[in-house]
Fold this sequence. Notes:
mainly alpha
Amino acid sequence: MSKDFTDYVAIGRELVQARDTNSWALGDLLVDATRELDIKPGRPTDPDALTLGDMAREWDVETARASAWLSNAEFYPANVRTFPLSWSHYDLARRHADGKLDNALELLDRAAAQAFGIRDFRRYVKGEYFEGPVSKEELPARLRALIPASVGSVWIVIRQDKEAA
């Protein structure tokens, strides 16, 4: 029996969930390894000292990826990894939280409440609150007046004014 689109979507979602679970597990493993083996970030003064890059090389992954796993695992204690969101959501929130867990959790709460996919969440943290088609009739009269009569809908982007921010 051949698979249809929804079958492939379901299989893909399971694999993505496994990837997210493994990303957390790899990060937690790196937290343990850095503590147990005294691995410091950056380049050690001792040329024989172990580095995150050494671990990444042995795992055959880029150091930046291992660093992201480690950073997320260090930043988010296991007891706050409760939002029904992907590891990528957590990573993005951490990078936009100014180093404060409460800020990241607030962003994640918003992402969960709005059911943001990672693409929409990325826009949100960049200050782009909406992008999409809108019927001309849904717009305020002042904006409708700018649109030619023959146009029924427009594509709009609502974002934070970078100069006012």
